Amino acid sequence: MRRVILAGSTNAWLRDRATKYPFVRKSVSRFMPGEHIDDALRAASGQQPLGITTILTRLGENITSVDEAEEVTRHYLDVLDRVAASGLDAHISVKPTQLGLDLERGMCERNLDRLMERAEQRGNFVWIDMEGSPYVDPTIDLFRRTRKLSPRIGVAIQAYLYRTEKDVESLIPLGSAIRIVKGAYLEPPDVAFPKKADVDENFYRLCVRLLAPDAQKEGALLHIATHDTALADRLSAYIAHNSVPKSAYEFAMLYGIQRQQQLRVAREGQRLRVLISYGEYWFPWYMRRLAERPANVWFVAKNMFG
Ligand SMILES: Cc1cc2nc3c(=O)[nH]c(=O)nc-3n(C[C@H](O)[C@H](O)[C@H](O)COP(=O)(O)OP(=O)(O)OC[C@H]3O[C@@H](n4cnc5c(N)ncnc54)[C@H](O)[C@@H]3O)c2cc1C
C-alpha cells in the first residue's frame, strides 16, 4: 500500500481531482492548521506555552519557473521577519527544489544565501529538507557550501539510504546540525533498506553516532525526527545512560501526529520542535503522510462516508 500511495503522490491527474474533494481537504486539516502562514503562526503561538518550539515549512516542491523560486524566497524572507517580530522560537525548513534547484543550481544557492543573510540578521535558523534520492548529492553540496558561511543551517538526512552512514561521517567534521529522519520517498531496494527494522536500526545508530563525544566536540546538533515512540524511548535511555547534555539534541515531530507523545516529551523537559506545514500545494506531502500509516487511509475513507 505504501508504494501505491507514494506512486500516486507524484500523479498530476490524481492531484488535480483529489484536492477538490471536501473530504480530502477535511482529512488534510488533521496534519496542518491551515493553508496560510497566519494559521501556522497561530498554531506555533499555541504550542510555545507548552514548551514546544516550531519549524515552519511552506508546502511546495519541484517548482518550474524562476518567478516561483523568487516568490518562495521572498515568502520565507517575510516569514523570518514575522517570526522575529512575534518573538516566537520558530525555525524555517526549505526544500532545495522550492528555491529553484531543478532550474539552476546557482539560483538555488543565491536564494538560500538570501535566506541565510536574513536568518543571521534575525538570529534564526534554516533547515534544508531532504527530497528523493537523486537530490541527495546536490542537497549535501548545498549544505556544505552554506555551512562554511554560517552555523545557522541544518540538513535532513534519511536513515533508509545505504549511503547515509558515510554522509553523516563526512558531515561531522563540519560541526553540522543534522535532522535524522527515516525517509519519506519511494526508493528502490538498491538505494534504500526495504525492511523497516533495518531503517529503524540505522536511525538509532546514526543518532548515537551524532551524540558521540567526538561529534559533539565538533559542534554537532542532532534532531531526532520521529514519531516512533519505541525508537525515541530507546534513544532517551541511551542519552540518560551516557549523560548526553541537552544542548546536543532536540526531538522533532510533525504537527498533528502523536500529539500525546509530543506533550509527554515536552512535560519531561526534553527539547521538542514541531514542524508545522502550511500552503496550497499540499498534495504530494499529504500523500507521503498517508503512506506512512495505512490507518490514515481509513481516516480519509471515514471522512468520505461520514
Ligand atoms: C520534523 C520532521 C521532519 C521531516 N523531514 C523530512 C525530510 O526532510 N525528508 C524526508 O524524506 N522525510 C522527512 N520526514 C518524514 C520522515 O522521513 C518519515 O517519513 C516520518 O517521520 C514517518 O516515520 P517515523 O519515524 O515517524 O516512524 P514510523 O515508524 O513510520 O511510525 C511510527 C509511528 O508513528 C505514527 N506515525 C508515523 N507517521 C504517521 C502519520 N503520517 N500519521 C499518523 N501517525 C503516524 C504511527 O503511530 C506509527 O506507528 C520528517 C519527519 C519529521 C518528524
Averaging pLDDT over every residue, what do you get? 92
Return the string of H and E elements: HHHHEHEHEHEHEHHEHEHEHH
In terms of structural class, how would the helical and strand content be classed? alpha/beta
Sheet bearing the most strands, described? 8 strands, parallel, barrel
**Spatial separation of the terminal alpha carbons:** 23 Å
How many β-strands, per DSSP? 8
Q: How are the strands ordered across the major sheet?
A: 1-2-3-4-5-6-7-8
Name a few traits of the molecule.
306 residues, alpha/beta, eight-stranded parallel barrel, binds flavin-adenine dinucleotide
Give your account of this protein's structure.
By secondary structure, the chain is α/β, with parallel strands linked by helices. The protein has helices at 2-8, 12-18, 22-28, 37-47, 66-86, 105-122, 136-149, 164-171, 196-211, 213-218, 229-241, 259-267, 283-292, 295-305, and strands at 52-58, 90-94, 126-128, 153-158, 177-181, 221-225, 249-254, 272-278. Helix 5 runs parallel beside helix 6 and helix 9 packs parallel to helix 11. The chain is globular. The mean pLDDT is 92. The structure holds flavin-adenine dinucleotide. Flavin-adenine dinucleotide (FAD) binds at residues 129-130, 156, 158, 179, 181-185, 225-228, 252-254, 257-258, 275, 289, 292-293, 296.
